[in-house]
Each structure stands twice: as structure tokens, then as C-alpha cells.
Recover the amino acids of this structure.
């Protein structure tokens, strides 16, 4: 019995031409590989400190500590999806935080105080978006770098460079409240409100990006902005929306940090933009745009939290943590370049 090897003429692949198992698994690993990484890290860290790492208190501490970065990272994710970057989010966090703290000290009603931080973030993000699109900046780096300095300067200006303490209960609730779930083996089980807020926000972003026309347009712009323009997408309008939303999330992060610390301080969020970028890239997003998932970003945030928590438990200097974050960004971008090269060859 003979088998014809001339199948390519009919458009079918021969066995030699069929993609290997590794190539076929790449899309699955791209989407869900972050969960495997978290599982492996968790098992390793548990083996190193079995009595501490998986304690309920330590786990909830990780989620409380990552709540602010979660908000920054999901906003940064939208920007990176469009092949952009926003270096101002740390300063916008501080500006939003100080705005609500100063307003509270001036006697403003708590609902206005609660909304002021996100509103300030939305306004600065809108300015970023308009500046990038209407001033035809060669790269978002320039506009957002300028906003980094302007927002930080404004935060110091309105506060006189000093911190403000004592915030409304509604603000503290978002940042530091916990819901009691009961008791297990003598351990009180409390669920941080910040974790609930994070899950709700990420579900909203997942629905938006996966199941809305605008979400698909954001991916399209990141994949090929020229093709997106030709297809009728108003790229400038979408970019203004994306940077506005990124600013909104930075302002919301400032609200959550204010609630966690019961204060506002103008030097908050220094370097926070780098942690947000690191979480997004670790989570599988591409600096080239058009690639990444909300689940991946959440996983990236958790990995950053696991690393920070482990180093803190072992009394490792914060300076080493900064060095490690820098290395993670470099390695993650390098892997992104390698992955892009593999995808191009395919």
C-alpha cells in the first residue's frame, strides 16, 4: 500500500510540515501559563517557609499589598496594548491622593472627597491622551514623562510638601477594611475589601476587552495602527480614551492607598509606574502592542506580590527588591522579543 506524498498540492500539510506539539501549545501557554508559574512559585515558597507562607494572615497581606499595583497595572495594560506607555501613573496616584486629602482637610463632603482622586486621575489621563494625539508627539514616552513631573509638582504644590492625615470612613473602608468570614482552627478569617474591589475591577475590564467593540479596537490598534485607521477606526479617539482610563485607574489607586494609610503624602507612588509595567510584562503582554490578557496582568501582579512578600519575610533590603524589579523588566522584555521572533517565523 502506498501513500501519496503530494498532499501539498491540495492545500493540506504533510506530517513533516505540521506544527510540533510545542508550537501548538504556545497559544495555551500564552493565555494560561501565568497560572502555572504562580503555582510553581507558591509550592517553592511554601517549601522554604511552610509555617508562614500559606498562613491566612500572610496570604491576605499579599493581596492587601498588591491592591494598589493591581489598579495601576490594569490601566497600564490598556496603554501597553496600544504599543504605548504611561510613565506618569505614580505621580498621578500621588496627585489624586493629595487632592482628596486636601479637600477633606478643607471640609468638603465625603462623597466629593471619595470621587476626587479618580476624577483628578481621569483629567490628567485625558490631558495625556490629547497631548499624544493632537500634538503629534513622536512617542507617548515624551508626553507622559512631562506629566510625571507636572503631576508630582502639583501634588507638592497643593499640599505644601507635607502629608495630611485623617480621612473619611468611606475612604478607609476601601483601602483597609476587612470582612469577617469566621474562624478556622483558632484563626480568624478576614477578607480584605481591597481584594474584592480588585476582582470586580478586573472582571469589568475582562468583559470590556473580550466582549466589546471598543475592546477589540484597542487590540487592533496595538497590532497594526495603520491597518486600524484604514479599516475606519478613529485611532486618536481610542487612544484618548485609553490614556484617560489609565489615568482614572491611577487616581483610583491613589484613593485605595489613601484608605490603606489613612493619609495623603506627596511623595507617594515614586517608582510605582515601573512596578505596574513589570506586572503587565510578566503577565505576558507585549511592549509591541496587541497582545496580552487581563488574567495575565492579574497573574503578573500576584507574582510581583509573591516576590516582594518573600523578600520581606527574609528581611531582604528594599534596595535589592528594586534591583530585582529592574532585572525582571529586562528579562521579561527580552523574552517578549524572542517570542515575537518565534511568532514571526511561524
Amino acid at each position: 500500500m502506498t501513500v501519496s506524498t503530494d498532499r501539498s498540492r491540495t492545500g493540506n500539510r504533510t506530517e513533516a510540515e505540521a506544527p510540533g506539539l510545542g508550537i501548538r501549545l504556545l497559544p495555551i501557554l500564552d493565555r494560561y501559563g501565568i497560572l502555572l508559574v504562580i503555582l510553581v512559585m507558591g509550592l517553592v515558597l511554601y517549601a522554604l517557609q511552610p509555617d508562614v507562607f500559606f498562613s491566612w494572615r500572610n496570604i491576605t497581606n499579599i493581596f492587601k499589598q498588591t491592591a494598589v499595583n493591581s489598579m495601576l497595572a490594569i490601566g497600564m495594560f490598556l496603554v501597553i496594548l496600544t504599543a504605548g506607555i504611561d510613565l506618569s501613573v505614580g505621580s498621578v496616584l500621588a496627585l489624586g491622593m493629595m487632592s482628596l486629602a486636601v479637600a477633606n482637610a478643607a471640609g468638603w463632603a465625603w462623597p466629593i472627597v471619595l470621587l476626587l482622586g479618580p476624577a483628578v486621575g481621569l483629567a490628567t489621563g485625558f490631558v495625556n491622551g490629547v497631548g499624544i494625539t493632537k500634538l503629534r508627539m513622536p512617542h507617548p514616552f515624551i508626553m507622559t514623562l512631562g506629566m510625571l513631573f507636572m503631576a508630582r509638582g502639583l501634588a507638592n504644590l497643593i499640599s505644601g510638601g507635607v502629608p495630611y492625615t485623617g480621612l473619611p470612613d468611606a475612604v478607609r473602608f476601601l483601602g483597609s477594611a476587612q470582612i469577617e468570614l469566621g474562624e478556622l482552627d483558632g484563626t480568624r478569617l478576614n477578607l480584605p475589601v481591597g481584594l474584592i474591589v480588585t476582582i470586580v475591577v478586573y472582571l469589568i475590564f475582562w468583559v470590556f476587552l473580550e466582549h466589546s467593540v471598543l475592546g477589540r479596537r484597542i487590540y487592533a490598534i496595538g497590532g497594526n495602527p495603520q491597518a486600524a485607521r484604514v479599516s475606519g477606526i478613529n485611532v486618536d479617539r481610542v487612544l484618548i480614551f485609553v490614556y484617560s482610563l489609565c489615568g482614572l485607574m491611577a487616581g483610583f489607586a491613589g484613593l485605595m492607598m489613601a484608605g490603606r494609610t489613612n493619609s495623603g503624602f506627596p511623595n507617594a507612588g515614586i517608582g510605582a509606574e515601573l512596578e505596574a509595567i513589570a506586572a503587565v510584562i510578566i503577565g505576558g503582554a507585549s511592549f509591541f502592542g496587541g497582545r496580552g490578557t487581563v488574567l495575565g496582568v492579574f497573574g503578573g501582579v500576584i507574582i510581583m506580590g509573591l516576590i516582594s512578600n518573600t523578600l520581606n519575610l527574609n528581611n531582604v533590603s528594599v534596595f535589592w527588591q528594586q534591583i530585582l524589579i529592574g532585572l525582571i523588566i529586562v528579562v521579561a522584555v527580552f523574552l517578549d522579543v524572542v517570542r515575537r521572533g518565534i511568532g514571526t517565523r511561524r
